[in-house]
UniProtKB/TrEMBL annotation:
CDD domains, per database record: PBP2_LTTR_aromatics_like
Domain spans labelled HTH lysR-type: 11-67
The organism's place on the tree of life at top rank: Bacteria
Entry keyword set: DNA-binding, Transcription, Transcription regulation
Protein name stated in the entry: LysR substrate-binding domain-containing protein
PANTHER family assigned: HCA OPERON TRANSCRIPTIONAL ACTIVATOR HCAR (PTHR30346:SF0), TRANSCRIPTIONAL DUAL REGULATOR HCAR-RELATED (PTHR30346)
UniProt record similarity statement: Belongs to the LysR transcriptional regulatory family.
Organism: Actinomadura fulvescens
Entries under Pfam families matching the protein: HTH_1, LysR_substrate
PROSITE patterns: HTH_LYSR
Keyword Cell membrane: no
C-alpha cells in the first residue's frame, strides 16, 4: 500500500509541505502548479492529511480558507517541515564531510593568532575525519607553496597575487619596528612623515611587488621616495636586522607581544592604514572539498576586529 494513503499512520512531511503551500496560495490550482502535481492529486493529499489529523484544515469554497484548526496547526506544520529540511541538510553535509589531509601554511606568527586557532578548531570539530597539518613558511615561500601545491591554504597578510582567493578574517593596526636605540623609539606614536629617510628592510624580489609596496608603505603621502635597506627573508632575519640598526619595518601590532626582542622597539604610526589577516588558497582549487571545509569554518567564526562587509576577494 502507498504509505501516503495509509490512513493508520501520521501525516507525512510531503503532506505538510503541500498544506503550507496551499495555505500560502489559497487556491488549489496555483498550489498544485507550484507543487508540480495535478489539482486532483493535491486535493487527495489534503484530504488524507485531514483524515490522519482528525480535523479539517481548509474550507473548500470559491477560495480556500483555513479552518480554525488549520490556522492553529500552521505554525506546527511549518516547524516540522523546517526541522526535516534541517535534518536532511545536516545529513548531506555529513555525507560531504572532508576527509584525508589538509596542509595549512602560516607566515610569521600567524600560527599564534586567535583567528587561526578559531578557524582550525571549528574545522576539526565539524570534520573529524580531516587531518590538519600546519607548516611554517617564509616571506617568499608562502606564495610559492600555494602555487605549487605544497600547502592547501595559507593564513597570511594580503595583498595577494592574482589567482589567489582570500577570506578576510580580521583587521589590525600596523606599527613601526625600530632599533631600540633610535630617538623615535621612546615616543608613544609617530607619523609617516617622521619616518621619512629611514631605510625600510627590503622583502625578497620574488614576493609580489604590491605586497612589498604595502609593507613598506610605499609610496608615502608626501611623495618622497622610500629608501630601502638589506633584504630579509623571514621574520627572525628582520628582527636581527632591525636590532643591528640596518633598517626598520612595518609589522602587524601583534608583533609587540609575539616578537619581543632585545634591541627592538615598537611605535604606533597614527596615519598608517591597517593591515588585514586572511585565509588564502589557489583559485584553481576552489571546489576542493577539504578547502570548502576550512572556508566554511572561516565563514562561521566571529572575532574582534572582523568586519562583516569583508569576504571573498583577491585583494586586501
Amino acid at each position: 500500500m502507498d504509505m501516503d494513503m495509509d490512513l493508520g499512520s501520521g501525516p507525512t512531511v510531503h503532506q505538510l509541505r503541500l498544506f503550507l503551500i496551499l495555505a500560502k496560495e489559497r487556491h488549489f490550482g496555483r498550489a498544485a502548479a507550484r507543487s508540480f502535481i495535478s489539482q486532483p492529486a493535491l486535493s487527495r493529499q489534503i484530504q488524507v492529511l485531514e483524515q490522519r489529523l482528525g480535523v479539517a484544515v481548509v474550507e473548500r469554497d470559491r477560495t480556500v480558507r483555513l479552518t480554525p484548526a488549520g490556522l492553529a496547526l500552521l505554525a506546527k506544520a511549518r516547524a516540522v517541515v523546517e526541522a526535516m529540511d534541517d535534518l536532511r541538510q545536516t545529513a548531506q553535509e555529513q555525507g560531504r564531510a572532508a576527509r584525508g589531509q589538509l596542509v595549512v601554511g602560516t607566515i610569521g606568527a600567524e600560527a599564534a593568532m586567535p583567528h587561526l586557532r578559531a578557524v582550525l578548531e571549528q574545522a576539526r570539530q565539524h570534520n573529524p575525519a580531516l587531518e590538519i597539518r600546519t607548516r611554517l613558511l617564509d616571506f617568499v615561500h608562502h606564495f610559492a607553496a600555494l602555487e605549487n601545491g605544497e600547502v592547501d591554504v595559507v593564513f597570511c597578510r594580503p595583498p595577494m597575487p592574482p589567482h589567489i582567493r582570500t577570506r578576510h578574517l580580521a583587521d589590525e593596526a600596523r606599527v613601526a619596528c625600530l632599533p631600540a636605540a633610535d630617538p623615535l623609539a621612546g615616543r608613544a606614536s609617530v607619523k609617516l612623515a617622521d619616518l621619512g629617510g629611514y631605510p625600510i628592510l627590503s622583502l625578497p624580489p620574488e614576493c609580489p611587488q604590491a605586497w612589498r609596496d604595502f609593507w613598506a608603505a610605499d609610496p608615502r603621502p608626501d611623495g618622497n621616495p622610500v629608501p630601502y635597506g638589506p633584504v630579509v627573508g623571514d621574520i627572525e632575519a628582520l628582527m636581527l636586522a632591525v636590532s643591528d640598526g640596518h633598517g626598520m619595518a612595518f609589522l602587524p601590532a601583534a608583533a609587540r607581544t609575539l616578537f619581543p626582542r632585545p634591541g627592538v622597539a615598537y611605535v604606533d604610526v597614527i596615519d598608517l592604514p591597517p593591515c588585514t589577516a586572511a585565509l588564502a588558497w589557489a583559485e584553481r582549487n576552489n571546489d576542493n572539498p577539504n578547502l570548502r571545509a576550512i572556508r566554511r569554518a572561516a565563514e562561521t567564526i566571529s572575532l574582534p576586529g572582523r568586519r562583516s562587509d569583508r569576504g571573498l576577494s583577491t585583494s586586501p
